[in-house]
């Protein structure tokens, strides 16, 4: 009996041991699988983020050109035809300038601007009446969900009323949880209206019982920036005491030129002769947005971050409305062109707002220029502790960076990054999040994803989907630089064997593309290697042609960069320049606009261009002879440059060096 019992126990122990070993084996396999997925996810994230920030660096490289061009754009008075009197500034004085340090007080002339406007009978979108009510705002939301555009008259009225409210607000808003016992903080939305609707569905609409702080970057990149801005502006009008809007680095005219908001406004309201006025009014409202919000004197909410020079008292007292673009600070009254740039602007004041909107935290102590983005600062944990202690604060909530989980704590939980646009890079790339803060000031982060398709995918499928998108973007960037890459590879491959070491390949890719990503990890996905991975067949990463403007690119390597390759590499800069020239935002460049732009360029490069030459150029660019140069004709002019003259290559070089010639 005892033996039988022992045998039975022994048998059971054997099965348990086998089961335990099987469980451990499965667990080990799953951990390795998770580790591989995490490695792939981090590589993917690095690709997306590096390409995004490289674009922001390119935008800052055009700074000098924008400075000159904006001077001309700023002198455009196209909106004045809707006013009886001359534009006036906030002091009631007549001004020749519609932007910058003397913003036009369009609000004071509502009757002249809106009095003659009518809403057509065939208009089927939401109707807006003033004074604005929550029912009207709900009607706007329903209309946007149905795909309707808001009538241009209502757009201008909301912008005008919102600017009235914003002008009464300080640079740093003061929010409280005393009445509602809580407050919600949202991060970047970037035109993703589905994410805003998800937040409202899960968390409720703004109200006195449900206050919100929206932390900037409402516009650009997404397709519904206009609608998001109008919804948020409407809530500010209805509930100015409980809805707080902070300015982000994309509430900026120059950023809007490149990243899509201006193009969206043009697409949605370009058929109206009021479109220049709509653009101008958005520009003015953005300039009046507050720069930060402090909750109960304990939590500061700011879009980018801080630096070792941040002083909230100074930030609260600077004239924020003068900074129509943070990339183009206002000049001092006594500024002269002969002065250095640092003497023409108040650098200390500019630094306050630049750091607030553009900075990022880092793990190392100290503070240094944010070379990755090209603007703002990197601030370490010691800087966070110092600034928070100086102002009696406990927590810094910021946005500005997409995070895989929608939020991230850093600096010993003293800094919280919140990002509210889910699927930012690709469907499945990241979750969105918002933060709820109670009277105990402890942040509670709520995650969400706006795409139902994403929720049906497994973790592996989501990673593969996002990884594929990232590799396609990276491949496009590689192909657009393949001539430069091949030349750099040949410097190592003096015998033209077609092979170089993996280290040489990785260093060349990083140097030419300017992307600090894990090239060694990505190597098997991008280039053919030998068995031990020590040598790569570099030409295999350069295969494929670009298709741009309906034509295939790619000329022999010894004939220099192909026109399509050069155009593709500089397409964003060219489109931005085109929109700068298009002062009336009509979608095409008139002869007068082209002459003005050439005059600016002539001054910029120190070379005289005769009016007849300018007219001849405009005529040759106007392929269909309709008196206007559209974007395709503009690109065609660059495509037709004589390859032997290397003019296009010269233009590319000067763009990369921070100017356009």
Describe what you observe in this structure.
This protein is an alpha/beta fold and 661 residues long. The strands form six sheets. Strands 1-5-6-10-12-11 form a six-stranded mixed beta sheet. Strands 4-3-2-13-14 form a five-stranded mixed beta sheet. It is globular and about 85 Å long.
Outline the secondary-structure elements.
Blueprint (H helix, E strand, L loop, with lengths): L1 H60 L1 H12 L35 H5 L19 H12 L6 H15 L5 E4 L6 E5 L6 H11 L8 E3 L10 H14 L4 E3 L7 H7 L1 H9 L5 H14 L3 E4 L3 E4 L9 H6 L23 H4 L2 H12 L1 E2 L5 E3 L7 E3 L1 H10 L4 E4 L8 E4 L4 E4 L13 E7 L4 E6 L3 H4 L3 H22 L1 H11 L6 E3 H12 L5 H8 L1 E2 L5 E3 L9 E2 L2 E2 L10 H7 L1 H11 L6 E3 H15 L5 H11 L6 E3 H9 L7 H10 L5
Helix pairs in contact: 1-16, 2-22, 4-7, 5-7, 5-10, 17-18, 22-23
Short description:
The chain is an alpha/beta fold and 661 residues long.
Overall average residue pLDDT: 79
Distance between the termini: 100 Å
Enumerate the spans where pLDDT stays under 50 for 5 or more consecutive residues.
4-8, 68-108, 545-565, 640-661
Estimated share of beta-strand residues: 5-15%
- Using the CA coordinates, give the radius of gyration: 28 Å
Structural class: alpha/beta
What is the global morphology? globular
Percent of residues in helical segments?
40-55%
Number of helical regions: 25
List how many beta strands DSSP finds: 21
Strand order of the largest sheet: 1-5-6-10-12-11
For the largest beta-sheet, the strand count, sense and barrel status come to: 6 strands, mixed
């Amino acid at each position: 009996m005892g033996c039988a019992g022992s045998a039975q126990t022994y048998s059971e122990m054997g099965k348990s041991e086998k089961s335990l070993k099987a469980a451990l084996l499965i667990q080990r396999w799953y951990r390795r699988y998770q580790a591989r997925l995490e490695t792939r996810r981090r590589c993917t994230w690095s690709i997306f983020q590096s390409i995004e920030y490289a674009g922001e660096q390119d935008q800052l490289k055009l700074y000098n050109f924008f400075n000159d061009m904006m001077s001309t754009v700023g002198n455009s008075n196209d909106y004045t035809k809707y006013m009886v009197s001359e534009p006036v500034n906030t002091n009631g004085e007549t001004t020749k300038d519609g932007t910058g340090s003397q913003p036009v007080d369009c609000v004071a002339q509502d009757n002249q601007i809106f009095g003659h406007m009518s809403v057509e009978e065939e208009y089927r979108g939401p109707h807006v009446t003033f004074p604005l009510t929550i029912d009207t705002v709900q009607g706007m939301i329903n209309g946007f969900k149905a795909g309707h555009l808001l009538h241009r008259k209502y757009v201008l009225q909301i912008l005008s009323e919102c600017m009235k409210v914003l002008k009464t607000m300080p640079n740093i808003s003061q929010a409280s949880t005393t009445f509602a016992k809580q407050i919600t903080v949202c991060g970047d939305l970037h035109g993703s209206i589905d994410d805003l609707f998800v937040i409202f569905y899960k968390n409720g609409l703004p109200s006195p019982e449900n206050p919100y702080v929206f932390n900037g970057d409402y516009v650009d990149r997404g397709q519904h920036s206009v609608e998001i801005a109008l919804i948020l502006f409407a809530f500010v009008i209805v509930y100015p005491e409980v809805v707080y809007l902070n300015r982000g680095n994309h509430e900026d005219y120059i950023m809007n030129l490149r990243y899509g908001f201006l193009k969206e406004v043009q697409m949605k309201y370009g058929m109206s002769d009021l479109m220049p006025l709509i653009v101008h009014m958005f520009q003015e409202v953005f300039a009046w947005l507050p720069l930060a919000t402090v909750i109960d004197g304990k939590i500061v909410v700011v879009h980018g971050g801080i630096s070792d020079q941040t002083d909230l008292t100074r930030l609260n007292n600077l004239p924020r409305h003068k900074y129509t673009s943070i990339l183009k600070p206002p000049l001092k009254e006594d500024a002269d062109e002969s002065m250095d740039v640092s003497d023409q602007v108040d650098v200390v004041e500019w630094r306050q707002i630049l750091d607030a909107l553009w900075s990022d935290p880092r793990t190392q102590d100290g503070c240094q220029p944010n070379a990755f983005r090209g603007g703002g600062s990197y601030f370490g944990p010691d800087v966070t502790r110092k600034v928070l202690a100086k102002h009696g604060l406990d927590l810094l909530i910021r946005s500005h960076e997409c995070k895989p989980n929608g939020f991230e704590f850093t600096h010993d939980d003293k800094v919280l990054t919140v990002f509210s646009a889910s699927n930012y890079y690709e469907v499945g790339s990241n979750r969105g999040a918002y933060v709820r803060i109670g009277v105990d000031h402890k942040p509670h982060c709520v995650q969400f994803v706006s795409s139902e398709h994403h929720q049906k995918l497994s973790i592996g499928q989501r990673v593969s989907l996002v990884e594929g998108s990232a590799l396609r973007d990276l491949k496009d960037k590689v192909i657009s630089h393949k001539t430069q890459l091949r030349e750099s590879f040949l410097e190592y491959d003096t015998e033209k064997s077609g092979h170089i070491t993996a280290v040489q390949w990785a260093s060349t890719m990083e140097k030419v593309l300017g992307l600090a990503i894990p090239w060694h990890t990505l190597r098997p996905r991008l280039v053919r290697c030998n068995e031990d991975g020590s040598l790569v067949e570099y030409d295999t990463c350069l295969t494929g042609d670009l298709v741009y403007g309906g034509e295939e690119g790619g000329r022999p390597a010894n004939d220099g960069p192909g026109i399509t390759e050069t155009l593709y590499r500089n397409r964003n800069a060219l489109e931005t320049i085109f929109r700068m020239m298009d002062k009336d935002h009509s979608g095409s460049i008139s002869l007068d606009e082209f002459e003005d732009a050439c005059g600016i360029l002539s001054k910029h490069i120190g070379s005289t261009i005769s009016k007849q030459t300018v007219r001849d150029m405009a005529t040759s660019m106007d392929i269909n002879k309709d008196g206007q140069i559209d974007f395709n004709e503009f690109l065609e002019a660059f495509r037709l440059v004589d390859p032997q003259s290397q003019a296009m290559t010269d233009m590319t070089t000067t763009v990369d060096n921070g100017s356009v010639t």
